[in-house]
Amino acid sequence: DVKVTQSSRYLVKRTGEKVFLECVQDMDHENMFWYRQDPGLGLRLIYFSYDVKMKEKGDIPEGYSVSREKKERFSLILESASTNQTSMYLCASSAPGHNTEAFFGQGTRLTVV
Amino acid sequence: AQKVTQAQTEISVVEKEDVTLDCVYETRDTTYYLFWYKQPPSGELVFLIRRNSFDEQNEISGRYSWNFQKSTSSFNFTITASQVVDSAVYFCALYTGGGNKLTFGTGTQLKVEL
User: What pLDDT, on the 0 to 100 scale, is given for residue B98?
Assistant: First the structure.
């Protein structure tokens, strides 16, 4: 079974903390993505990566950074968490080309207090 | 700019009813791909279908069918004889080479009750 695994299902952090969200895929996919899901707004792309050590900004990169040191792992970093970053975060991976099917993780529900 | 509109925020039906989820898209590209994903309560989005802009043939897979109409820029999804297990949020998405990313609609919450 192909899999995208996110390290935490639920996370509670304090304002100002540095937060790491980890994502691992076992499909040898080149592409990896981080989305944020909010009610009424759907999924919005934060960052994506087409290869190791490579990253591209999505629609809402402010307040976030990413790291991809290995092909299978894509980390989302909140440098200084704020309450408006309380959300569901979804990681996905796909084969080359955005027109291919993306596989999603189960999501991390982050609450910043 | 590309855009996907799912005007139906929430739909409630009784089991065995047919239900259609609407999706309208905007793009200036002539080559593009449309997707539907299902997000059950567990949270993980599941791929349902991909359609490219040159293939307007309707698709049927079991109780699911999709109607792609370029003339109205729509890619609607119908579930026949709905079941409780169909309860989920359904997302329509658009990919274009010009945008180089997948754009999602805001999703439709489908509730199927006994």
Answer: 60
Which of A98, A100, A106 to mutate to test binding with chain B, by most B CBs within 10 Å of its CB? A98
Whole-angstrom CA distances from A55 to A25, A50, A104, B4 are 17, 7, 18, 25
> Out of A41, A42, A104, whose CB is closest to B44?
A104
Report d(CA A94, CA B45) in Å as an integer: 13
Considering only CA atoms, which of A11, A32, A29, A28 is closest in space to residue A20?
A: A11
Summary mean pLDDT of chain A: 93
Residues 6+ apart with CB under 8 A from A55: A47, A48, A49, A66, A68
Percent of chain B past pLDDT 90, that is, above it, reads: 74
Q: How far apart are the first and last CA of chain A?
A: 36
Q: Do A98 and B46 touch (CB under 8 A)?
A: no
Which residues on neighbouring strands pair with residue A49, listed in sequence order?
A32
Residues of chain B positioned with their CB less than 8 A from the CB of A5: none
CA dist., res. B7 & res. B62, Å (int): 25
A42 contacts B101? CB cut-off 8 A: no
Over residues B20-49, the mean pLDDT reads 93
8 Å CB contact of A99 and B95: yes
CA distance B27 to B98: 9
Interface contacts A/B by beta carbons within 8 Å: 50
